[in-house]
Write a structure and sequence with these properties.
This protein is an alpha+beta fold and 142 residues long. Helix content is 35%, strand content 20%.
Length: 142
């Protein structure tokens, strides 16, 4: 996919939490998953192996930072990590806090829901995301 046709080259891809020369972290705004983040490599590459060793370390450190903040702040049942790129072949990692009460758990977020959404629980998580975003940005800036 040419960079000019890539949605992740053209826009941030969500609420910008942090950006440096190498990557950006966004809160994805996926319905039913307020604690759904993406680490997006700024340069248009399709695969993780397109990065040199130092770049791979930088990228994975960002993924780990988000995971650690989500675990500390939300105590989820699980953190899902994924780097699919089938629809948008621009390197990005999904970092998703999962809870036993979420509509899809334990199935993947891209599957069919297994139960109705728990609006009170979703609102409680969403209300924490401002602080989570601040902690992610501060930790990444160190």
């Amino acid at each position: 996919m040419p960079a000019q046709a890539c949605p992740l080259c053209e826009a941030d891809g969500g609420l910008l939490v942090f950006r440096n020369e190498a990557l950006r972290i966004i809160q994805a705004g996926e319905a039913g998953f307020p604690a759904f983040y993406r680490v997006i490599w700024n340069r248009h590459v399709a695969e993780f192996s397109d990065l040199c060793a130092a770049e791979r370390e930088t990228c994975m450190n960002a993924v780990v930072t988000i995971e650690q903040v989500l675990r500390s702040e939300l105590r989820p049942a699980k953190i899902n990590l994924a780097a699919l790129g089938n629809v948008v072949p621009h390197l990005h990692w999904h970092v998703i806090a999962r809870f036993e009460w979420d509509s899809y758990f334990p199935a993947p977020v891209w599957s069919a829901p297994q139960r109705p959404a728990d609006d009170a629980q979703l609102a409680a998580v969403a209300s924490r995301c401002g602080e989570i975003n601040r902690r992610i940005a501060e930790t990444m800036a160190l």
